[in-house]
Amino acid sequence: MRTSDAVIAVQHLRKSFGSVEAVKDVSFEVGPGQVLGLLGPNGAGKTTTINMVSTLLKIDGGEATVGGFDVRTQPEVVRQLIGVAGQSAAVDEKLTARENLELFGRLYKIPRGKRSARIEELIKQLDLGAFADRPASTYSGGERRRLDVVAALVADPPAVFLDEPTTGLDPRSRSELWGTVRSLASNGVAIVLSTQYLEEADRLADEILVIDRGEIVAQGTPETLKQDLERDVLEIQVGDRNGFERARELLGPDANPATDAETLRIDIPVHGGADRSLALLRQLQDGGVSISNFQLRQPTLDDVFLALTGPSSMEAEEITT
Ligand SMILES: Nc1ncnc2c1ncn2[C@@H]1O[C@H](COP(=O)(O)OP(=O)(O)OP(=O)(O)O)[C@@H](O)[C@H]1O
Ligand SMILES: [Mg+2]
Q1: 13/126 same-domain check
Q2: For 239, which of 82, 272, 290, 314 could close a Cys bridge (C-beta 3.0–4.6 Å)?
Q3: Which residues 6+ apart lie within 8 Å of 268 measured at CB?
Q4: Last residue of a domain, one of 190, 220, 250
Q5: Any residues with Cβ below 6 Å from ligand 1, and which?
Q6: Of residues 168 and 285, which shows the higher confidence score?
């Protein structure tokens, strides 16, 4: 998309905490009605990215604007344009959901008449009714998360940041939240949504940024990414230690296997489905490896990351931890 259309624009964002480079070089743009999915495992840099763009954290390098306003030099203006549902909720424990939302509404200077209608609408939409009049300190994880999201939406901001909004939600709450995100987008809101779930990014995002250790490791529409990532995984259980080492030798690094020496398991990403799997199994058997079990399965997010970052980075991690 053209820069002029972007509600949220981020260029070469960087952030370090001491020696940890939490965000290395992250750039993206989100237009009105678009959902950008920030997909990554624990520690990838999702929250750090969101916190910088939403003015909660100082930017070390690069630029970020919301509605054309510089996050660094005009944070007060930016704050009026955004809603943030984060992992550390800005919710007052002693107050009920309704009272918390009232407070947010007042903070954002929404006229009293409009305020209660908007709050009731959101309470209904995200199904907060059952607990809306109990103090937030009594909420379950999922209830709290829903309140957090609603609080971000009270002021009808043109840009919304949702940091792992569905982590810990049951399937029904999750699909309700997905509905909310879709309806926000169809109303023209620009949304950045972080998630650890491939499926969630796939269902909601117009564009996905896969990040790992502060770096973008893949980027594209769900369709293009899936073409790259959706390979099956051949899971092989080797019978003994010698066979395991032999299998590693036979496969070589090109097969990009994930190996676990404790459990003698080898996971190999395969493109050609059954044909390729059979060929690999035959190759191992002919090489004298005893295989006690195997299965072909759909990839998990772990497989995706392994495919993207390669085994060398896994080994590097093993050495440093
Ligand atoms: N205040 C901080 N001080 C030191 N290190 C930090 C701080 N905040 C984040 N980090 C480190 O920066 C990296 C990125 O963290 P971040 O919270 O952005 O990850 P994340 O993608 O949101 O992960 P999660 O899915 O677990 O929420 C991690 O290595 C983390 O330990
Ligand atoms: Mg996080």
Answers
A1: yes
A2: 290
A3: 233, 234, 236, 251, 255, 256, 257, 258, 280
A4: 220
A5: 17, 20, 22, 40, 42-48, 87, 196
A6: 285
DSSP code of residue 56: S
Sequence-separated (6 or more) residues with CB below 8 Å from residue 131: 97, 138, 139, 143
Q: 143-194 pLDDT, tens per residue?
A: 888 898 999 999 999 999 999 999 888 888 898 889 989 989 999 999 999 9
Q: Which ligand is nearest to the CA of 301?
A: 1
Per-residue pLDDT tens digits for 122-141: 999 888 999 999 999 999 88
CA of residue 73 to ligand 1 center, whole Å: 24
The string of DSSP letters for 212-272 reads: ETTEEEEEE-HHHHHHHH--EEEEEEESSHHHHHHHHHHHTGGG--EEETTTTEEEEEESS
Verify that 171 and 250 share a domain, yes or no: no
Domain encompassing residue 300: 229-320
Q: Are residues 21 and 84 in the same domain?
A: yes
User: Which CATH number does the domain housing residue 61 bear?
Assistant: 3.40.50.300
Token pair, residue 310, equals 């390669």
Ligand 1 atom nearest to CA at 48? 18
